[in-house]
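Morning - coenzyme A inputs below, output right after.
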Amino acid sequence: MTSIKPFQLEDLFNINPVNLDPLTENFNISFYSQYLNTWPNLFYKSIESTALPQDEVISGYMMAKTEGSLFKNELHTHITAVTINQNYRRINLASKLCLQLEKISEVQLTLFIDLFVKVTNELGRKLYEKLGYSIYRRVIGYYGKSMPLDRNLVNDDIDAFDMRKNLPLDKDKKTIRDHGENVYVLPNEIVFL
Ligand SMILES: CC(C)(COP(=O)(O)OP(=O)(O)OC[C@H]1O[C@@H](n2cnc3c(N)ncnc32)[C@H](O)[C@@H]1OP(=O)(O)O)[C@@H](O)C(=O)NCCC(=O)NCCS
């Protein structure tokens, strides 16, 4: 049986099997700690129970934050990571973790949820599209090693799609757009202050 529980610092010792995927980013301890300290409600895990509590397995987790100003119509929730252990995929777990995020009151106070997904990550994109997200813009060279200067230099291997889903607070859908895959921006143009 699956349950969703708050992520705890010591869980970092048990997430290697979840993170073993080239499309899952691994961060340093201070980065995870910052999320736990600042947005504890937005960092949670899915747990698979067994007959013995000590055999419980972390099957996936969600790590998110809120950022941007309401004054500029940019207050939003950002999904930094959602990832599922290979042994527990395609049973709706990532969908559950994403839908859970929308139920959290501090998320409901934001205008939209967004995330970056590699252009080549078709599974990730399918997941989000199924949940009602759409492409807002293409970030040129987001996953590259150097800062790109030409916004027309598309490269599927290092570009990201910035995907968004508007939340009830944005009832007029001002924070999303159609055909965002044709809107190219540079990484320095997507900073929220
Ligand atoms: C992408 C990922 C999170 C999906 O997790 P999951 O728990 O298997 O996803 P779900 O079971 O909720 O699937 C939701 C939808 O995504 C799509 N999808 C997921 N896996 C798929 C697959 N192997 N083949 C085709 N479609 C797939 C389907 O549309 C699916 O809906 P359906 O089962 O009704 O057809 C998982 O593959 C993963 O952890 N990948 C590595 C990290 C990553 O890419 N994270 C997302 C980017 S931030």
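Note: The CA atoms of residues 136 and 180 lie 4 Å apart.

O.
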